[in-house]
Amino acid sequence: MSTPSATTSSSSPASVTDHAPVSSGGAPLRFGSLGPVGLVLAGGISVQFGGALAVTLMPRAGALGVVTLRLLAAAVILLVVCRPRLRGHSRTDWGTVAVFGITMGAMNGLFYESVARIPLGPAVTLEVLGPLALSVLASRRAVNAIWAGLALAGVFLLGGGGFSDLDPVGVAFALGAGAMWAAYIVFSARTGRRFPQADGLALAMAVAALLFLPLGIAESGTRLLNPTTVGLGSAVAVLSSVLPYTLELLALRRLPASTFAILMSLEPAIAATAGFLILDQSLSATQAAAIALVIGASMGAVRTQVGRGKAAVPTGAT
Length: 318
Known about the structure:
With 318 residues, this protein is an all-alpha fold. It is built from eleven helices and no strands.
């Protein structure tokens, strides 16, 4: 997913964001016209429907096999499209990309191991606790803690008020994915500041793919070479990696990490909708109420940030 400016050594995590990214020719990127909130929402819709498609692919390739196909296809696409420059980067730049790639791979692997054991909605509900925790820790404003608390209440309501009936191993994987998601937000922002456009994302995706390749081969073997499996895995890569990660990279150049993290509380609602449409998982009245809570919290967080931004002076990218 990735991105730019959330925290820097000279500004707080909630500092106002950078200028809009531009293409090599100096023209604004077309995706930027959606606005940072629109970019986050579009990315969320893409990744959750991609996740639902991945669940249907797991019987063919296994959880680790799906992750491997997703990361490999996404890495190839991003490397071809971005053609990142390999020279001229410092050791710190490469270290940041490496950590970002490791974090990305771990986040994907833990999440898919989770949805292999528990339903998509509860898995995302648990996973989103990571970004919610980040929003409280990163923000220096008390009101953001209130919005995070409201979103957290909605998250637990969406989970039916408890997760005691779920596979504990699946729950542990989902919580681990949430911790990696929080780390992903931090390191994607740092990567976005050090590399132009989506170059850092492409390189980090290649790191993640190389790390997971042995795991995918060990679990799935020649099943990874089946044409149908490869095709579906490539579709998952586009929906769950290429589109959302690029959109979020652009969004975080203009959206603070704390607000972005609270917007992530919309993910369980989107996941529940994807589960209903693709996996025949129905929504109860309680789940609908939970969706309303997380949407309300996200709207409040965005409104708070917009109000703050009117009085702030934008800073340039670092």
